[in-house]
Design goal:
The chain is mostly beta strands. Helices cover about 15% and strands about 40% of the residues.
Length: about 200
């Protein structure tokens, strides 16, 4: 390794050669200093919920009848109260909203009864039909998959799809059991049923 000493000019100034050598070393240092904050600011996004996590699905569903209209109908998930989940660490402390994502969240609406009904998908609210049928019948089932990311926390709740069952013929609402079931990977299934 060679060393070079430089002497300031007679007037006390720094030589041109010293300025060029210093600039050659300074530029890479500035480039690294600028690049480091950009790399540390990148994120990978929310983590998927793992098996055995301290969490549960939480949902608000509504199943009601509308009588006195023409047609009468059974209204499923008319309310927008929401569906979501919370997740806790080993000490029981809730993780911040948006830290975790539920994989493949689904809602299934089923009915079984005396009356023959035609299901109407009134408002899907970000869900897509992924199974079942909208064909008329005394029994039926329709499954919906959430098309966005279902993230943990109260601020990330999403309303369930709004489905209406109307009598296929006439206007009578026969005795019918309607059920809303929510599921996701690594969660226990939750459901709510009403006999009308």
């Amino acid at each position: 390794m060679s060393t070079e000493t430089t002497q300031p000019g007679r007037d006390g100034s720094v030589s041109r050669r010293t300025v060029i050598k210093t600039a050659a070393w300074a530029v890479p240092v500035v480039a690294v200093a600028v690049a480091a904050p950009l790399a540390s600011a990148s994120t990978t996004g929310p983590e998927p919920v793992q098996p055995g996590s301290a969490t549960t699905l939480d949902g608000g569903t509504s199943i009601s009848t509308y009588r006195g209209g023409n047609p009468n109908e059974i209204r499923i998930n008319q309310s927008t109260s929401g569906f979501g989940f919370f997740i806790f660490d080993a000490n029981g402390v809730e993780y911040p909203d948006g830290t975790y994502v539920a994989s493949t969240p689904t809602i299934t609406v089923t009915w079984n009864g005396v009356g023959d009904y035609t299901p109407i998908l009134r408002d899907l609210r970000g869900w897509t039909q992924s199974g079942g049928s909208t064909a008329s019948g005394t029994t039926g089932s329709i499954t919906f998959l959430y098309s966005g990311q279902l993230l943990n926390g109260a601020s990330n709740r999403v309303p369930a799809p709004y489905v209406v069952l109307r009598p296929t013929t006439g206007n009578a609402l026969g005795p019918t059991r309607a059920t809303v079931e929510a599921a996701a990977v690594n969660f226990d299934t939750i459901d709510s049923s009403v006999t009308i």
